[in-house]
Design goal:
Oligomer: single chain
Distance between the termini: 40 Å
Shape: globular
Order of helices and strands: EEEEEEEEEEE
Radius of gyration: 14 Å
Strand content: over 45%
Length: about 130
């Protein structure tokens, strides 16, 4: 079992930046990838970015490409999401998730992740 704790959310004006962190503990040797997802009010959880643990392969949602950067610190079992040029539509609860093993569906479907953190709120004011 892997436990995840997110931090770094908050209230920021449009155009501002935030850096989210997600620390993993427990059975971290069973990690294929870590991903960031977000869920706005009344919306489904959507993919934001993900990074594979072994070869650092990265994928981004089109809506955040060029603005968000995912990175990881292997020694600290931590994944980061640097968010720049934030927009009001980025407002959501942001979750990090663990994908324990490679899947045929890739990194994007939330259903392929089997451990989640509690989430951190990001609010972008206009």
């Amino acid at each position: 079992q892997v436990q995840l704790v997110e931090s770094g959310g908050g209230l920021v004006q449009a155009g501002g930046s935030l850096r989210l962190s997600c620390v993993a503990s427990g059975r971290t040797f069973s990690v294929n990838a870590m991903g960031w997802f977000r869920q706005g009010p009344g919306k489904e959880r959507e993919f934001v970015a993900a990074i594979t643990w072994g070869d650092s392969r990265i994928d981004y949602a089109d809506s955040v490409k060029g603005r968000f950067t995912i990175s990881r610190d292997y020694a600290k079992n931590t994944v980061y999401l640097q968010m720049n040029s934030l927009k009001p539509e980025d407002t959501a609860v942001y979750y990090c998730g663990i994908q324990s093993r490679p899947t045929m569906v890739g990194l994007i479907p939330a259903s392929s992740y089997n451990s989640w953190g509690q989430g951190t709120q990001v609010t972008v004011s206009s």
